[in-house]
Amino acid sequence: MPLKASVTRNGAVLLGKYVACDGFDETRPLRIVTHAHADHLTGLRRSLKDCRIVIMTPATKGLIDVLKGPSYLTAGNVKTLEYGTTLVYKDERISLHYVDHILGSAQVLVKDADGTRILYTSDFRLPRTPIIEADVLVMEATYGNPYRARPFKKRVESTLVSLVEECLIRGPVYLFGYHGKLQEVMQILHHAEVDVPFIVPERVFHVSKVCERHGMQFGDSLLLSNEEKARSMLQHGDPCVAFYHMNSRRRVGQKAFRIVVSGWEFSSPCKQVGEKEFRVALSDHSDFDGLLGYVERCKPRMVVTDNHRHGDAEALAREIRSRLGILAKSLPASK
Ligand SMILES: [Zn+2]
After folding, report:
1. What angle do CA 5, 21, 299 make, to 5 degrees?
2. 13 C-alpha to center of ligand 1: Å?
3. Other beta carbons less than 10 A from residue 254's beta carbon
4. I want to staple 316 with a disulfide (CB 3.0 to 4.6 A). Which of 4, 144, 253, 275 is the partner?
5. pLDDT of residue 11 exceeding 80
6. pLDDT score for 267
7. pLDDT (tens digit per residue) in 84-139
8. E-assigned strands of 124-269?
9. How far apart are the CA of 232 and the centre of ligand 1, in A?
10. Ligand 1 is a single-atom ion; what residues have CB below 5 A from it?
């Protein structure tokens, strides 16, 4: 019997007969974009040109309009789908479901004509991601190796808030992370009543505005980094937090307090990595225990781990087989 799900060498996650997620596949009329991270937008230009429908949540569309420009998605037939609503395509039923990762992220469920439930988690973290039961499961494997565990994960947010507060006493703080994660930190600080201006470059500003339109809260303290007030605060060492994309970390804030938020930290919630630089283990992915926990409660007959994107898909498949006794394989096969 052919597999009802797989991952191609182009990074397309194939579900059922018609759907390709997060990569282009010429045999599939439907392309689903599970979220706006770059490694899930692979082949999107081609999908817009060749697929009958390109599907995503309204929030993901808002983020792509900012990150790629407002005309990018007009090249194709884009349909936005809310969480929990079903699109029927021929003899299959397709729905998107909430996943805790970045704004707009979705897991994808396809029910085929035989009643088989085929699920792709995309990137996710527990405990806020609802677990869906399925027969065939495709899952991410970023932290698929058993030693990628963060037993301290419940303490990360409070550690981050305390660190920012301590640094602010002595001056501005620069915070570096990826789109989505930066806005998560803004919301954490806002809820913890860290009421200082948040200074952001233009692109981070526009991403943040999309997040606000979809319900995230940062207070009303966003200042564009090229505004006179922002420049003067940074120059005079006034307390404020400047949020920059990870790629800018060698370019700005060299002399200030610097915090990098990254999931690639397993030794402690916070590690000092330079005289005034810290790494905080805030991740938007599940650690190894979370990945295994999802499989256990999803109760699939078979699991495919994503061996195209960064991670450890082979180790995860091996651990699923040996610890849970469930058929599992990593795809595409390693060369
Ligand atoms: Zn992602």
Report:
1. 45
2. 14
3. 11
4. 144
5. yes
6. 84
7. 999 999 999 999 999 999 999 999 999 999 999 999 999 999 999 999 999 999 99
8. 136-139, 173-177, 198-200, 222-224, 241-245, 257-261
9. 35
10. 37, 123
